[in-house]
Specification:
This protein has 17 helices and two strands. It is mainly α and 406 residues long.
């Protein structure tokens, strides 16, 4: 029987993502397990729809495909909003934790590749195969896996590298979405990292919804102002990324350039135009950011083609299982104690699981799920995106070349 395709256009896909998000909200309310382990709503709804699409594929030999053109714009909005809320003064205050987390991340990336390449070597497989089960597909994600795949096929003898890498990244994204909440819950409940009820309340930050926010006012002018500034920063980011590619051959992800431009604008424009109402820290900007993250992650998960995981070889599944175990142990034994053994460290642990196996938006969603239950963790939301968005892609390219060169 010939496989049939059922493509859904952009309008349908976008609005379906909103419905799926609300489905996740409903599932979390009705399922104590999902609430207890802080599983994000986009993960609950998105994975259920992906599973239903898998059933349709198996039973009817029909592939449901979603249009994801708007997903990139949502990603840019989210990271640009993070940049707009970052102040150099805050970065200086959090300088030491930022440096520690950066060192931990680079160390973990080396560990991740050692695990992948060691298992590959024991099984008599090329080093490139092990890297597909390491930072190429996990920390790097789909984009890095697709970018490195052809080179691994041509120069390192890894047959089907693109397909294996994409499938590995998919499974890593699922694992990251499911691991972060339980890790955060364990560190808070079992390792004594509950927030101090007597400490001064931190200001709300993007990605966190608290009860007191219900009384704040979000106006249409505030939303339009925030959206305009976001789009200006995104336009500058796209231009910067293209200039870097043409000028020095540095091909950074566009969202990294947008994040950088957001930081620069928020730390210069308000100083020059002191009477201008700037959206940084506003609830209007927070609403746009929450919307962008929720729909982006929902679209990413509901569009997972779970049947592609059948292409994973047994050795890759073995590597992935080990990577999940190593990630959990690294967070509990290294990230949590070295970041201070406090509530912010626990929230960072949930976020670290997100980007160590999946992607930065997954990390933010994991932290958001934890903080919705236990309260704000401003430092965690400030430093993790800077490490995972700014530094990881640059470090990953160098680390991959180091292992391939060896």
């Amino acid at each position: 029987m010939t496989e049939e395709a059922l493509p859904l256009n952009e309008f349908v896909s976008f609005n379906l993502a909103i419905l799926v998000y609300f489905l996740g909200v409903r599932l979390n309310k009705k399922t104590p397990f999902l609430r207890r382990y802080n599983i994000p709503e986009p993960v609950s709804g998105g994975l259920l729809v992906a599973a239903l699409a898998f059933v349709v594929y198996i039973a009817l030999d029909t592939e449901i495909s979603f249009s994801l053109q708007s997903r990139d714009y949502l990603l840019y909005c989210f990271f640009t909003a993070i940049g707009l809320n970052a102040r150099f003064g805050d970065l200086v205050k959090g300088g030491k934790p930022l440096l520690i987390l950066l060192c931990l991340t680079v160390g973990y990336m080396l560990v991740q590749n050692v695990v992948g390449t060691s298992i590959a070597a024991v099984l008599g497989l090329p080093v490139g195969f092990g890297l597909l089960g390491g930072t190429i597909s996990l920390v790097g994600g789909h984009g890095t896996a697709i970018a490195w795949g052809p080179k691994l096929v041509a120069d390192y003898g890894v047959a089907g590298a693109v397909e294996i890498g994409a499938a590995t990244a998919t499974l890593g994204l699922v694992a990251a979405s499911l691991l972060g909440g339980p890790i955060g819950n364990y560190l808070i409940e079992k390792r004594g990292a509950k927030p101090d009820p007597d400490r001064p309340q931190e200001a709300p930050i993007i990605g966190i919804e608290t009860a007191r926010e219900a009384d704040t006012t979000v106006t249409h002018t505030g939303l339009m102002r925030s959206l305009l500034v976001l789009n200006i920063a995104i336009a500058l980011g796209v231009g910067l990324q293209e200039a870097l590619v043409v000028g020095i051959g540095l091909d950074l992800p566009v969202f990294v350039a947008c994040l950088f431009c957001g930081i620069v604008l928020s730390n210069t424009v308000p100083l020059v135009f002191r009477r201008m109402t700037w959206p940084a820290g506003s609830q209007s900007l927070a609403v746009i950011s929450d919307l962008a993250l929720g729909i982006f992650l929902t679209m990413s998960l509901m569009s997972l083609q779970l049947w592609t995981l059948a292409g994973l070889a047994g050795p890759m599944l073995l590597i992935l299982v080990m990577q999940i175990v190593i990630a959990a142990l690294f967070i509990i034994l290294a990230v949590f104690p070295l970041m201070g053994r406090d509530y912010n460290a626990a929230v960072l642990g949930a976020g670290f699981a997100g980007f160590a196996l999946g992607a930065t938006p997954t990390a933010i969603a994991n932290m958001t799920a934890v903080t919705k239950r236990y309260g704000p963790a401003t430092q965690a939301f400030l430093i993790l995106p800077l490490v995972s968005a700014f530094f990881v892609d640059l470090a990953n390219a160098l680390i991959i070349l180091l292992f391939l060169g060896g």
